[in-house]
Amino acid sequence: MAKFKKLPVIVEAITFDELVAHGISTGATLHNGMPWSFDYMGYPITHENDGCYIIPTLEGNHYMTQTDMLITGDKGEVYPCKMDIFIPTYEAVI
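Below the sequence we write its predicted C-alpha cells.
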C-alpha cells in the first residue's frame, strides 16, 4: 500500500468568540447578546443556541461550539474543527 504525506496549506481560522464578535460587528439582530443570523466569508451563519452556530459546509450543515475553530480553507470554504484535531494539525504562521 502506498503512503502519502499531506501537503502543507495555509488556512485562516477563528474562535467561537471571534465569530460572535464578527456577527455583532455586522449589525446582526441579537438574541441574549448573541448575533442571530449573519454572513461570514459569504456563508450564512445561523444561531442554534447561545453555545452553538450552524455552519453550512460543502458536506452539509455542521455545528460550531465554543470549543471549536472555524477554518476557511484555501478555496474559501468554511468548516468547524474540534480543538483536539486543530491543535496537532495546525501551527501558527508568522
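The chain has one domain: 12-89.
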